[in-house]
Amino acid sequence: MPKKDTNLTDSERALFRESMESLRSTSSSESVDATVSVWRELADMHHVGPEDNMAYIPKSLPQIEQRRLKRGQCAIEGRCDLHGRTQEEALVMLSEFVAGQQHLQHRCVLIVHGKGGRVGGDTAILKNLTGRWLLAHPAVVAFHSALPRQGGTGATMVLLKSPSSR
User: Fold this and answer.
1) Secondary structure (3-state) at 160
2) Which of 45, 104, 138, 159 would you call most buried, defined as having the most Cβ atoms within 10 angstroms of its Cβ?
3) Residue 143 pairs with which residues in a beta bridge?
4) Which domain holds residue 98?
5) CA 124, CA 122: separation in Å to the nearest integer?
6) Which of 101, 94, 113, 106 lies closest to 156, judged by CA?
7) Distance (Å, rounded) from C-alpha 145 to C-alpha 148?
8) Average model confidence (pLDDT) for the chain?
9) Which CATH number do you get for residue 47?
10) Of 47-51, 83-87, 133-137, which range is least confident?
11) Does the model's pTM come out above 0.85?
């Protein structure tokens, strides 16, 4: 997985943040449609396969937290299952889930996106969409594919900003 800001321009980041603010402030279909179009642009950047690990762990994260995340040792405080969702539904669910977890002051959450690859053609669609969203979201500190017992490469452990750093 690339570094967090490798392929996003300042205007793409601004457009994403603007779209996400619209999504939080209203539930109108216009806002969702605008967010979905931004996501489709972001989703074209990189592709990870069904069995590939997906990770972003900044060097600024303390070593002990890096190890805990990689080893699946942080206590999972919330779960979001995206199986069977369309891309649009998944984006809305992810946004609402992270906002809710932040409100609850949860720090470590699990997102189950599946591996993809069961239907011919494009593979790991929700997995890749989840990775792009996590890379762009300002509340996400780090993430790493889960351990096999937690869902393996079909799930991602996410470390959110602590309440004091928001």
Assistant:
1) strand
2) 159
3) 56, 158
4) 10-165
5) 7
6) 113
7) 9
8) 80
9) 3.30.1370.110
10) 47-51
11) no
pLDDT tens digits along 84-131? 898 899 999 999 999 999 999 999 999 999 888 666 555 788 888 899
Cβ–Cβ < 8 Å for 26, 35: no
The residue whose two tokens read 């932040």 is 102
Bridging pattern class, strands 140-145 and 155-160: antiparallel
Q: Taking residues 72-80, what's their average pLDDT? A: 94
Cα(71)–Cα(117) distance, rounded to whole angstroms? 25
How far the first Cα of the chain sits from its last, in Å, is: 25
Provide the residue type at 45 as one letter: M
Fill in the amino acid letter for 157. M
Residue 142 to residue 17: CA distance in whole angstroms: 18
Tokens of 145: 């594919």
Q: What is the tally of structural domains in the chain?
A: 1
The reported pLDDT for the residue numbered 9 is 74
| Distance set, CA 53 to CA 7, 9, 83, 125, 126 (Å) | 19, 25, 18, 14, 14
Helix (H) or strand (E) holding 83: none
3 within some domain: no
